[in-house]
Amino acid sequence: MKTLIQAVAITVALVAPLASFAQSNAPKTRAEVRAELIQLEKAGYNPGASNDATYPAEIQAAEARVAEQNEATAAAKARVVDTSGFGGTVVGSSVSGAHRSTPSNDGMKPIYFGH
């Protein structure tokens, strides 16, 4: 059961980036590829010491760890608190009570009385 959950988690981790890359037709730059390789190496993948028999499992595990790190980074960015000292934008407004008109000094009621 545990291996099934792990297999599903790895599959989801590998398919999710593919959906986002499917929208971009531009090829990756050399710098982007290098940054991805460095990120995989930091996640524990060593391309020089990989064995052909264990290659797919090692790279998939490293990609899953990278995906988890990216999700954690995105979640942390979403929780960032605004410390700029300014308030946020006002989304709505509210009015409390009703308009009260006072009668004029001569005892006449306003023109729109009763409407």
From TrEMBL:
Pfam families associated with the record: DUF4148 (PF13663)
Region listing for Disordered, in residue ranges: 92-115
Key words, A-Z: Signal
Name by which UniProt lists this protein: DUF4148 domain-containing protein
Origin: domain of life: Bacteria
Signal peptide: 1-22
The keyword Signal belongs to this UniProt entry's keyword annotation: yes
Upper taxonomic lineage: Bacteria, Pseudomonadati, Pseudomonadota, Betaproteobacteria, Burkholderiales
